[in-house]
Amino acid sequence: MAYCTVQEIRDEGITSEQATDPRLTTLIDLATVYIDGITRQWFEPRTITITLDGNDGEVLYLPVFPIEVVGVTVDGQAVIDDYKVYNRFFPDDRRNPKIYREAGWPEGRQNVSIEGTWGFVDKVGTQYLTPTMIKQVAKRLVIRELPLLSDAEGQEERKRARIVSESTDGHSYTLERLASSLDLTGDPDIDGVLALYRAPIAIGGV
DSSP string covering 32-65, please? Predict the structure, then answer.
């Protein structure tokens, strides 16, 4: 999945002359990869099993918010109702996701597996949605990669929204390069949001 759609980019005034649908799809995918890499987490529900090192403590800090946990194993053995998952939206556990077990998490290498649905998402009713600011950043990353608008006002706005360094083609910045290098963009409107949503470095226990 991706954090914005082709239609949402079109709604920003981007025409087919500036970019075809396949081109926009590629840029949207690159923007999604870049956002995930910079923030070290993701912003849509993804069902996977996460494996962590046991720390001989009662708390394991998780790499991303657990929307729902359906199974836990320790050293290959299922753990049944012997843990508490901190996954509330109100009050908000999304910036400090963790799982508690009074019996502790035996020390080991990749010996704790947690199966579930994960993602830093907003809950709206029964839906889990990509946060609005992340969607805006995804759109901004895509749009700044496209040719400048023809009108003077549009050109100035686009210049403020992109990094263009001098090179033979006048455009050495590319979203593809950012997605592979995970450098910051230099645009405070983008980098500030990415910093806000960056996952904590410490994963596991204390």
Answer: HHHHHHHHTS-SS-EEEEEEE---SEEEEE-SS-
Q: Provide the whole-model pTM.
A: 0.83
Q: Say how many C-beta atoms besides its own lie within 10 A of residue 82's C-beta.
A: 11
Six-digit token pair at 118? 């994960």
Closest-CA residue to 44 (of 55, 36, 52)? 36
Pairing of strands 57-61, 112-118: unpaired
Residue 145 CA to residue 42 CA, distance in Å, equals 22
Residues in the chain: 206
Q: What angle do CA 49, 94, 66 make, to 5 degrees?
A: 20
Q: Distance (Å, rounded) from C-alpha 160 to C-alpha 147?
A: 14
Q: Collapsing DSSP states into helix, strand and coil, what is residue 68?
A: strand
Rg value, the chain, Cα = 20
Residue pLDDT, tens place only, 105-153: 999 999 999 999 999 999 999 999 999 999 999 999 999 988 754 444 4
Could you tell me the two tokens for 16? Answer: 């087919």
Q: What's the token pair of residue 44?
A: 């849509």
